[in-house]
# Entry
Amino acid sequence: MNYFLKEIETAPRHELEALQSQRLSSKIKQVYENVKPYRAKMEAAGVKPEDIKSVKDLARLPFTEKQDLRDNYPYGMFAVPMSEVVRIHASSGTTGKQTVVGYTANDIALWAQCAARSLAAIGGTKDDIVQVAYGYGLFTGGLGMHYGAERLGAVTIPASSGNSLRQLEMFRDFGTTIACLTPSYALSLIELMAQKGINKADFKLKAAVCGAEPWTQEMRLQIQKGLGLKAYDIYGLSEILGPSVSCECVEQCGMHICEDHFIPEIVDPDTFEPLPAGEQGELVFTCITKEAFPLIRYRTRDIVRLDYSECKCGRTLVRMMKPQGRTDDMLIIKGVNVFPSQIEAALLGFDPNATQYEIHVFKGDALEVRIEMYDGMFRDSIGSIEEYRRKAIEEISSAVTVKISIKFDEKGQQKRSEGKAKRVFDNRAGGNNHG
Ligand code: DLL
# Structure
């Protein structure tokens, strides 16, 4: 097995917990002293830093939410003087004002270590050639994986996203072995390969590190087949770090969280009460090592289940299963909660080639799935267009338990993704329009 920091990644759980407890209590002291909003919240909750002695005391601390970051925009929650800050990133801000996060030099080193651990977990070594096709800029994907690949000692290609034909040329000419990109961008590249007659046999790719947006197992199979590699899931969010808060290992069965830096909790999304291990709920993180922007009990809005069982790779770090969606992306259709990922799983389960699709919601809660047509779509087993429609409605409606309609879009009509795909268009008044 390939590890970057074996001692930590395979540490017995009681040792890991002792480390977390010690780091947590000193971090809470630091934020209490240096970050006014934390001090105010803790005082309001009647909690003193000395009350937090171990991870078991975590639940006594107040939550932090996106709104707190907005209220203290841009630098009000930084825990160090600005002279210590060496980098800033910002969240994409799909809803409301963007949020700003800062990093000290140690934070950047910590991030590079986490990203190197992620790459090592999927089999990466210094002999690899890593093409980073996440966007570079305020978005954390590009620079996060870039520093990780360099820390691993691999050859790093700072491709950034877009310029798709060039991405494929680089795969071929530079002998790229690991590609870092969003899953929807991977699909866009696969489509372009078919259009340009580019063959995956010309590539040396062995792995894709895909994240930044929800994607299903069905999508994984499409990417693996289309690019001739193994596709691994990587998770992160700007507020906590960026990519590599957690990443899959070669077993492809859940993403190991860097728990020596981030303590995860799962809470009930309605009552915010902590849920027992193994239950699905909202993921909450507490940063215990970051210096500039250590969020405490940050509610991510991602719906996740944690698995504490042993992993075949030998890592003892808890695994988070694929996020089922975000509480703020969940659609409420006639009183029923519908996650876009459920629609994707049902659609691709029925037709693995229907990867270019959109979800539209209209007044009166009408839910329409628009599937872009592709060559040969109504041939073979799926039958005629009406037969396809009937089957798609049946499969998707039964998965989400609400009635849907299907519309077929012309080939090439829908916008292709180069980063986070936008798939949901909520046309109801006040509806959100997340990807
Ligand atoms: O998307 C960081 C990142 C970059 C992760 C590259 C992985 C690879 P944000 O733009 O702040 O940061 O968006 C964070 O994206 O709360 C999730 O809802 C979603 N997300 C990220 N990774 C995954 C994933 C980056 N693997 C938000 N599966 C998070 C599902 C994901 N959703």
